[in-house]
Amino acid sequence: MKSFVITFSGIDGAGKSTQIEKLSSYLAQAGIPAHNLSLWDDVALFRRARSNFSRAVLQSDSGDGALGRPAKRNDKNAQAGPLLLGRSILYVLDLISLRRTVQKARTEIGGVIIFDRYIYDQLAALPMQHWLTRAYARMLLRFTPKPDLGYVLDAEPEDARARKPEYPLDFMRQYRNSYLQLSRLAGLQVVPGASTENVHLTVVDHFTRATPAPTPPTEVDSEVLA
Hints:
By secondary structure, the protein is α/β, with parallel strands linked by helices. It has helices at about 15-30, 40-45, 45-55, 80-110, 120-125, 130-140, 155-165, 170-185, 195-210, 220-225, and strands at about 5-10, 35-40, 110-115, 150-155, 190.
């Protein structure tokens, strides 16, 4: 099939990694070539410097939190003015990198290209309740390569934080509201929180609806094939 870009976004603990794994397995069983990319590993610039800054300056724990093993993350939830300005500049650079990555993936890889997080996840961490932030988000969205199918996995902040205890609950609530706003601005498909299998079925259903069905051969084509 021609290149088909899918993105998964959502608050930490919403189940993105699980659903990407299940969709990848579904595509493999269907014989559809798929390739996974990550916003942080394949797109974001200055990753080491950013990680070091979070640990050394913001005193953020490294690694992910898990059930029974909470982590005290202090990175995207730190929203002092200078930090927001610095991130706004970095996100523009990341967007330039994203455009190159998507173009290269579409031309050189083909098949289904699945992104674990996208530029939407960076924008959602900003205080979207302010008009200036929303104007900045709209500007970046104008230049963002639009995926063929963009998912926002919705989840109650309390449930998501219980699965992945990393950020304060107040920030998780703000984070979720930002995703819902961005879903309207960017035309993303919001998948309501449910059991893992039901979410997977919803993801697959939207994928099959969005994927063009094979065109049956015309009479001329049938004669040629004969």
